[in-house]
Prior knowledge:
Shape: globular
CATH topology of the largest domain: TIM Barrel
CATH architecture of the largest domain: Alpha-Beta Barrel
Strand content: 15-25%
Radius of gyration: 21 Å
Mean pLDDT: 92
CATH superfamily of the largest domain: Glycoside hydrolase/deacetylase
Amino acid sequence: xxxxxxxxxxxxxxxxxxxxxxxxxxxxxxxxxxxxxxxxxxxxxxxxxxxxxxxxxxxxxxxxxxxxxxxxxxxxxxxxxxxxxxxxxxxxxxxxxxxxxxxxxxxxxxxxxxxxxxxxxxxxxxxxxxxxxxxxxxxxxxxxxxxxxxxxxxxxxxxxxxxxxxxxxxxxxxxxxxxxxxxxxxxxxxxxxxxxxxxxxxxxxxxxxxxxxxxxxxxxxxxxxxxxxxxxxxxxxxxxxxxxxxxxxxxxxxxxxxxxxxxxxxxxxxxxxxxxxxxxxxxxxxxxxxxxxxxxxxxxxxxxxxxxxxxxxxxxxxxxxxxxxxxxxxxxxxxxxx
Length: 338
């Protein structure tokens, strides 16, 4: 009898989940590109992105982040809303993503790391991937990063190879293990210390020439990005640090200066912020509020709860290189998991 009650309860639970329908969701993209190495799943191929936009336009109500936040404040979300966001400020956001978004009539917010605009430098995680996966020479050396010594041991190969390794899969090869170990060593360093460490890695592993598609936008590109009103810009700190690793005043500077610089570059008001790496604490949230932002997003994968929410800690779901149907399935799965 107890077993029967349990089965009935499980069926009711599943039916209840089915009746709940869709949930408001913020999507997190980074790049619309096809890089040879993408261990964090940051890139969605242009064809796949077009397919995803078609399915989203057909099935969901696409809002800008400002619209979604405004409805959230009024508790006026009906569950079918989706907002599209991009992190970091890659050049392909303008060159590739914007035309596809315009074709679909889909609004988006691009969170920009201002300190790298026009620098000609790659984001350090991309350069690290090229150093670990693209180097063809044999390497046997030692390097100090953040006060700890690391052994660099790689065998030679004839040509650079593509890698389909994704970080959620346990690393198996020497290159995969090295990348993950070095990324963990570098991620919580400040900008100055990380720059020194990257130079040491280039000396041992490099060089890793920057490809145009891997670079951040130019400063003047931001005006072109927001022209037309379909795309808005948000803050993503100046140097993309793990904010909780910084002292308060450095944390404040990263958050406040980013907003000031973006307003100067775009000529508009910057209302939203995305915590780099999704890394935040109560202090970071309060500093974001004090800097004049009116909402902020993290990287916690969940729908937006229209009844109970923190406007300075809104969840997002990372979009991978899925088909349109796979994206809709991921949205359904996220809603059902609540």
